[in-house]
Amino acid sequence: MSHGSILVADDDAAIRTVLNQALSRVGHDVRVTSNAATLWRWVAAGEGDLVITDVVMPDENAFDMLPRIKKARPQLPVIVMSAQNTFMTAIRASEKGAYEYLPKPFDLTELLGIVNRALSEPKQPAAEQRSDDQPESMPLVGRSAAMQDIYRMLARMMQTDLTVMISGESGTGKELVARALHEYGRRRNGPFVAINMAAIPRDLIESELFGHEKGAFTGAQHRSTGRFEQAEGGTLFLDEIGDMPMEAQTRLLRVLQQGEYTTVGGRTPIKTDVRIVAATNKDLRTLINQGLFREDLFYRLNVVPLRLPPLRERAEDVPDLVRHFFAAAEKEGLQAKRVVPAGLDAMKRYSWPGNVRELENLVRRLAALYPQEEITAEIIDAELSGAARPEAGQTQAMLPDNITIGQAVEHYLQRYFTSYGDELPPAGLYQRILAEVEYPLVLASMTATRGNQIRAAELLGLNRNTLRKKIRELGINVYRTARGG
């Protein structure tokens, strides 16, 4: 173990005591302070081999001081701690040049390991700092221990081009994580291009990925650019990679190995410079054993594996997510709403088979269709149990079996407008009602055709590309299973 002089800054006396005792016990020389000014005086004087500091100090935020520390002593490792356990905290720590970020409460053994590693590693050149002109946003929400691990992993990946494989159930936010990797990473000025392998006919995947030349196949009336070309200099997100056919897997492997590709029908190799982020809700190792996925491609893609936990494994994040989605609905012009504590408890107990996407859909439905500002536990229980949705606290009357869709909608709208008395519902009702109808319509059509998008498009009377866009926008899972399966 490398022993060194460690500077500790934290406004909490108990934490200062714990760190002082733990670090001194293993041979380090420790100096503690409760304010940022003293810490900066020590650093500016050349003291200390490593800094451990809380973000929020009584006299200055550590994120404001970090650039000065890195400028004065670029080789000095700084470990940042924070009770504000959000994604943006981890990202800002990375952007400001922190060696490591630890959410509070932290594991003391893990901290000691980080300290030992920081003191033992050879000093690296200072990383280029990102400007502060980008407004803070919250692309990922949750303060659970599971999400803290995700945030820290993402923060480490931001300044690399390593290929990332994101695994997780449908609705866990795999594309959201891929976008965060891009938007806060070194390729943020380049394009982010996403392609869903499950939503593209098998015979068109290679053309979608690599483009095609005029006359390459029947119907190719002109040259078309592929997603690799569109993503040049940026990030290519390959969603549902487990649905990629074997022939396309072979071509993708060649691109990853050689850094170049040819268009369908083309002969001239094209150099490519993209970062690959892949995602799957399937067990690729099982697919490998079944001969459905190339093992060599798996290892090329699985450089940095990142598993997103299902919502049931981080139920403590449900209240934060509910508030986040209600806030988003309010920005769209809907009335501000909140769920009573008993309702939140019921939501935390629910298993959420559709994960965060299912929760978001529920919150948007609550925001759009319930007039009351406070959502009761009874409403939540009715929604989660699949019961008929009561409007304005009334029991919905049973409708006759032979009622038409138009009559059912008219009946619903009469009750909906009545619930507002002399007032009118929030603006945007047209789009909200269409969205409510569109999702079950497209889902029922996809189910009836067993996931066949060509037949579903014909059934709906839509262009296939339009249907594909609807599936993506509505977040509909495409299951290719027998009806009733």
Automatic annotation (TrEMBL):
GO terms for cellular component: cytoplasm. Its main location: cytoplasm. The keyword Kinase does not apply. The keyword Lipoprotein does not apply. Gene3D superfamilies: 1.10.8.60, 3.40.50.2300, Homeodomain-like, P-loop containing nucleotide triphosphate hydrolases. One of its GO terms (molecular function) is sequence-specific DNA binding. The modification 4-aspartylphosphate is found at D54. Keywords: Activator, ATP-binding, Cytoplasm, DNA-binding, Nitrogen fixation, Nucleotide-binding, Phosphoprotein, Repressor, Transcription, Transcription regulation, Two-component regulatory system. Residues 5-119 form the Response regulatory domain. It holds the Pfam family HTH_8. It is found in: Cytoplasm. Residues 140-368 form the Sigma-54 factor interaction domain. GO terms for biological process: regulation of DNA-templated transcription; regulation of nitrogen utilization. InterPro entries: AAA+_ATPase (IPR003593), AAA_lid_NorR (IPR058031), CheY-like_superfamily (IPR011006), Homeodomain-like_sf (IPR009057), HTH_Fis (IPR002197), P-loop_NTPase (IPR027417), Sig_transdc_resp-reg_receiver (IPR001789), Sigma_54_int (IPR002078). Member of the two-component regulatory system NtrB/NtrC, which controls expression of the nitrogen-regulated (ntr) genes in response to nitrogen limitation. Phosphorylated NtrC binds directly to DNA and stimulates the formation of open promoter-sigma54-RNA polymerase complexes. This is DNA-binding transcriptional regulator NtrC. It comes from Nitratireductor mangrovi. The gene is ntrC.
